[in-house]
Design goal:
- It contains eight helices and eleven strands.
- The protein is of the alpha/beta class and 233 residues long.
- The chain has a single domain, classed as Leucine Aminopeptidase, subunit E, domain 1.
- A seven-stranded mixed beta sheet has the order 4-5-3-7-9-2-11, sandwiched between helices. A two-stranded parallel ribbon has the order 1-10. Strands 6-8 form a two-stranded parallel sheet.
- Helix 6 packs across helix 7.
Length: 233
């Protein structure tokens, strides 16, 4: 009976279901559940991965109180923080003032997370170290430890969302200092989660074209993935 119900389930009204089976659709995701629904969910905190959702739209609609992204002390005109400042009518920040503020902390030898108060949204910006031409996974790890402490100290910063840092123009993310290669999305999520972050993460829109590679909506990923990598089933 359950199987019959699943086969007859319709998603869209009218001819929507048949129209939406076109395999030529440009942006496609194959989303897998990481575990069956349960009336006794686990206590382990996970990162939600917001596949197919528009970050700026969700920020402007008031779904989040804080945003985690990156800034540098040279030029942030192409960063999401400048886009957000431009879209918020009550924000007094712009690309120049965002960069000027970052320059005040550029001499710090330790990692810094700068706070930009944009009225309804507080941006927690990982400052790219001045001696790093790009962000590294180590910078992400250190930055998110600070972000986690800041969110824990001030609960009003929740709910919090973060960019994926992949495909960035203003603050490119690489695996290590001497590398020009971007890390995998899984590596970025691991760095965030091990630093204590359990908010939401928005993949870059270009990552919506991952099909036929399947994706999960939460991290850590299920143990079955590691079993498959090791040759098990």
């Amino acid at each position: 009976m359950t199987g019959q119900h699943h086969k007859s389930c319709r998603i869209y009204d009218g001819d929507g279901d048949s129209l939406m089976t076109d395999q030529q659709l440009a942006e496609r995701l194959v989303l897998l559940p990481d575990a069956p629904p349960s009336s006794h969910p686990g206590k382990a905190q996970k990162i939600r991965i917001m596949w197919g959702q528009h970050l700026l739209d969700d920020l402007l609609s008031g779904r989040y109180r804080s945003l985690v992204c990156a800034v540098n002390a040279q030029n942030n005109s192409h960063g999401i923080i400048s886009q957000l400042a431009q879209l918020l009518p009550t924000s007094q920040w712009d690309a120049k003032s965002i960069t000027d503020y970052a320059k005040m902390f550029a001499h710090h030898e330790s990692h810094s997370v700068l706070k930009y108060d944009m009225d309804s949204i507080e941006v927690l910006a990982l400052l790219r170290p001045s001696h790093h031409p790009h962000l590294t996974l180590s910078d992400i790890s250190d930055g998110f430890r600070l972000v986690t402490e800041m969110v824990e100290r001030k609960s009003s910063r929740r709910p919090v969302a973060s960019v994926s840092f992949l495909g960035a123009r203003a603050n490119k993310l690489v695996e290590m200092d001497a590398s020009e290669h971007e890390p995998s999305f899984e590596s970025v999520l691991r760095a965030m989660h091990e630093a204590g972050y359990t908010g939401d993460v928005y993949p870059s829109p270009w990552m919506w074209e991952t099909a036929p590679t399947s994706v999960f909506a939460r991290y850590p990923f299920p143990e079955s993935l590691e079993q498959m990598r090791q040759g098990g089933f």
